[in-house]
Amino acid sequence: MSATLSEAGFHLRASLGGWGIWIAFGLLLFMGLAGSFVHVVAHAEGPLVPHPELLTGQIGEFFYLIIVFVVAGFAGAIMRRDDRLGFDQILAVAPAPLYVRVLGKTLAAFALTLIFCSLPLLAGYSVTLLAAPTSFAPTLPLVYFGLAYAPALFEVCGFVVLAHAVFRGAGAAHTFAMLGAFIIVLNSELGLVTYPPAKFGVPPHVSFSELDGVWPWLTMLFTSGLFKCGLALLTTAFAWLVWPSEWVDTWVGGLRLMRARLWGEASLHLFGSCLIVVALGSVLHTQHVERGGYMSASQEEALEARWEKRWLQHADAFEVDGGDVMMHVDPEARMVRSVWQIHGVVAERALHGELPSGVQVI
Fold first, then answer.
1. Which residues contact 88 (CB under 8 A, 6 or more apart)?
2. Sign of the four-CA dihedral 290, 231, 269, 223
3. Model confidence over 318-336: pLDDT tens digits?
4. Are 284 and 195 in contact (CB under 8 A)?
5. DSSP symbols for 52-109
6. CA atoms 94, 96, 102, 106: torsion sign
7. Which end of the chain is more exposed for a tag (fewer CB within 10 A), N or C?
8. How much is the pLDDT for 247?
9. In this predicted model, what pLDDT tens digit does every residue of 159-195 receive, in sequence order?
10. Is the dihedral of CA 73, 7, 13, 124 positive or negative?
């Protein structure tokens, strides 16, 4: 274990020792500060107070599109640091076991990813302290970026580690990693995959409330974060199995090497990762489908079609003169009671309406 941590520390120090990564840190932090002031504090439609509930989601979405590609690039650089002529052969005959190299590089890549995840957190803290110091609340952004943001980027990092383990050529590995990062960003923007646990590399959607903050989401974020960390560990377990050897040049030899590794320490890593993913995947399925009412796009369209078939053929034209709404909010009971009064209703047969999701008539 100490050798693995030493290997990870070496690669992390080597990554942080170059001036390029510090320029990247500075540019990302500056972009976060400038973007927050432009789109929140000095909004074109009127200045907004940068409360953590408002700023956290916006700055997280702004940073996500950039950090995905940054993580893919810098994690790939860590995986290819030993690609020197003859150096791989020296490491192959070293007495250190393979998992020292694999896990050492992986831990260094995860640590660097965690540093990049802290940049939007620092930017949000800075904007709130400069523009609205009385609204500063460190807990909400810390919980969001720690339980939602970082695990999603760990998935991206694990995918990059697997890509560089599968492809021996650095060019092919970097190309595949960037293509995968692009597909992840495209899925985040277009919603190609709608089932929340299947959104690989995408942080879960959270709507913050000024009344309760992030606490109603805490259980879901914690479970989802552990699930995504389990998927990241699973990708690194596969990377361990397919890690190239300098003494094997054929596919048959590679398959034999994978079979031999399955009887070693890699099997424990793979079994533990699979156990985490399966156990937490069932919990998330219960939360989203059985309790949360999740439906796929085809199921939602079918439900709307049945509703239209049932009601639209009986719909009548109607007129109203106005109305009043009285609402009472009880934060402790987490309940809102409202009374709607509609005046001057004129309808031929009946007045049809639909309540929002989660609202009941009592």
1. 82, 246
2. negative
3. 788 888 888 888 877 777 8
4. no
5. HHHHHHHHHHHHHHHHHHHHHHHHHHHHTTT--TTHHHHHHTSSS-HHHHHHHHHHHH
6. negative
7. C
8. 61
9. 999 998 888 788 888 999 999 999 999 888 888 888 8
10. positive
Q: Which of 45-59, 110-124, 235-249 has the highest mean pLDDT?
A: 110-124
Q: CA 347 to CA 262: how far, in whole Å?
A: 72
Paired tokens of 168: 């021996």
30 contacts: CB under 8 Å, gap ≥ 6: none
Asked if residues 135 and 83 have their Cβ atoms less than 8 Å apart, the reply is no
- Does the pLDDT at position 265 exceed 70? yes
Question: What gap in Å lies between CA 123 and CA 149, rounded to an integer?
Answer: 15
Task: Give the phi and the psi of residue 209 in degrees, each rounded to 5.
Answer: -115, 140
Per-residue pLDDT, 275 = 93
The reported pLDDT for the residue numbered 182 is 93
DSSP state of 336: E
Residue 326: CB atoms within 10 A of its CB come to 9
